[in-house]
Amino acid sequence: MRKKYGFAVLIVLLFFYLLRFPKESLESVSRGLALWYRSVLPVLFPFMILSGLTVRSGLIEQLPGWLIRPVCRLFRCSASGSFAIVIGFLCGFPMGAKVTHDLHAKHRISDQEAVFLYRFVNNVSPAFLLTFLAREQLALPEYGPFFVFCVLGASLLYGLAVRPAPGSFEQQEKIRRGTFSVSFQDADASIGDAVSGTVRLGAYITVFSLLGAAADTVFPMESIPGKLLAGSLEVTNGVSAVIAWGLPWNLTAPVLCAVCAFGGFSAFAQTVSIASMDRKTACIYLKSRVIITLLAVSLATGILFLRLAVGRFL
Q1: For residue 165, what pLDDT is reported?
Q2: Whole-number Cα distances in Å, 196 to 2, 52, 75
Q3: For the stretch 269-278, what's the b/e string if a residue is b when 16 or more beta carbons lie within 10 angstroms of its beta carbon?
Q4: Domain ranges of the chain
Q5: Are 257 and 281 spatial neighbours (Cβ–Cβ below 8 Å)?
Q6: How many whole angstroms separate alpha carbon 212 and alpha carbon 227?
Q7: DSSP designation for 223
Q8: Separation between Cα atoms, residue 109 and residue 273, nearest integer Å
Q9: Half-sphere exposure (CA, 13 Å, Cβ side) for 210?
């Protein structure tokens, strides 16, 4: 009941914001649509088509063993699950969850393996950390590998920590192993899913851009609550807010790792939507992101502390 009242209050406040601040509302919606059109759509749309076609065609199971066996053995997953892991770590939010959902819907992986994969395969991409964060925002490209190691390394460590017992998913993979086939219907369905998915992502990006602008009127980004709120809502705005905070580097770096590892509630909403998660799975996913965030902060703090200690020793 409290949640229903909370959503009702939020809707009323957003209506008030749209009527009271029409110029700011228009600008925030325009920013969200521009971000979707210029950055998200060109990058994710082709990947969604190709990943959907790969899942439908059964191509994953036909790949040579030497190519997929290392990932399968490391995470004790099926061949199909290894594809979700690779895509999730290379392509960024929410492709890991999207591929996992598609594999589960096509019965390429079991319910248990899908939940296992949701825990750690959905991350920001290495390109985001290397280019947007290190090069564009910080102007410190030499720190790109540091952020990749801390943020994506935290997800890898968590995936290893929660991996199942040996043989849990490999046997199921053998049962479902099929043949490779491609048809026009598969291509058309993959394009349709990609269109639906990217449009949905654009809607969520726009909504959270509006939410961020509305929150900024109550908690300006220059204030500490405003920066914390920006960091929790959306990752790109959160990165900018943390950098503008002007904290010492030994504090800025771990906080940036936390923002990127969590991904923001915008990425959480996009993931829950595009993967059609039920409440239980969404809670598991959210708890996992919190743990991964803490791991990323621990890795960053440990590396910085070690570097400082070695520097003093030398």
Answers
A1: 82
A2: 32, 12, 31
A3: bbbbbbbebe
A4: 21-313
A5: no
A6: 11
A7: S
A8: 20
A9: 23
The two tokens of residue 52 are 């959907």
CA–CA distance from 125 to each of 4, 95, 131, 206 (Å)?
Answer: 35, 10, 10, 21
Residue type, 179: T
Decide if 152 contacts 89 (C-beta within 8 A): yes
Residue written as tokens 């449009």? 199
- pLDDT at site 206: 87
What was the pLDDT predicted at 175? 42
Q: Are 286 and 268 in contact (CB under 8 A)?
A: yes
User: pLDDT tens digits for 204-241?
Assistant: 888 888 888 887 777 776 666 766 776 688 888 788 88
Residue numbers of the chain with a pLDDT score lower than 70: 1-7, 61, 63-66, 168-182, 221-224, 226-227, 230-231, 311-314
Which of 127, 105, 113 has the alpha carbon at shortest distance from 159?
113
Residue located via tokens 């500490």: 224
Contact of 117 with 95, CB cutoff 8 Å: no
The pair of structure tokens assigned to 287 is 């708890």
pLDDT given at position 287: 96
Residues in the chain: 314
CA dist 303 and 258 (Å) reads: 15
How far is Cα 57 from Cα 263, in angstroms, rounded to an integer?
A: 31
